[in-house]
Amino acid sequence: MPDKSKFVSELMRVVAPGGRVLIVTWCHRDLEPGEPSLSKKEEKILAKINRAYYLPKWCSVDDYVKLLEKEGGVDIKREDWSYIIAPFWKAVIKSSLNLKSVVGLLKSGFSTLRGAYAIFLMLRGFDTGVIKFGLITCTKKEDGSESSDKELQLGRTAEGGTVVL
């Protein structure tokens, strides 16, 4: 999502009052108090990943929390799931280290090779702590009408769909 503010605004628009929004996404690390931005080295690794995977600019879990607060989200919770996801990249690399996979990769073309290279960048990003895998959830304020079964409301949009990303 290139426009994170618009994305969060749309999530909060479609979720029913009392419903929950759940965002699970790659993020960069939160900035320390007084830290104006990521380091040039951190920005460089994220830019390389963006080029390889055609991604927009990254943001932090804290950025999403602030956007949800701005949109009126309540009961905001966050969790860093990086430790769960980080082993995935090593497993992907290990699973591709055989002759058949390497030959297939070489035959697949430049875009696939660039994506394969980005796997190493993701691994470096996790190892240095710049890349995080974050879970952010919140509730949309009730509009005054109480539901008889809040469990049924969780994650439901006003149109009856589910908001899970």
Please describe the structure with a list of short key phrases separated by commas or semicolons.
165 residues; alpha+beta; Rossmann fold; 3 strands
Describe the fold and architecture.
A 3-stranded antiparallel β-sheet has the order 1-3-2. It is of the alpha+beta class and 165 residues long. Helices cover 50% and strands 16% of the residues. It contains 7 helices and 3 strands. The chain starts with a helix and ends in a 12-residue tail after the last helix. The model is unreliable at 145-154 (pLDDT under 50).
Share of helical residues: 40-55%
In CATH, the topology is named Rossmann fold
Poorly predicted runs of 5 or more residues: 145-154
Structural class: alpha+beta
The rounded Rg comes to: 19 Å
How much is the average pLDDT? 83
> Which homologous superfamily in CATH is the superfamily?
Vaccinia Virus protein VP39
> What is the 3D form?
elongated
Strand order of the largest sheet: 1-3-2
What is the CATH C level class, in words?
Alpha Beta
Number of helices: 7
Give the strand content.
15-25%
Number of strands: 3
Q: What's the end-to-end separation, in Å?
A: 11 Å
Order of helices and strands: HEHHEHHHEH
List the helices and strands and how they pair.
Blueprint: H1 4-14, E1 20-28, H2 40-53, H3 61-70, E2 73-80, H4 82-95, H5 99-108, H6 110-128, E3 131-140, H7 150-153
Antiparallel strand pairs: 1-3, 2-3
Helix pairs in contact: 2-6, 4-6
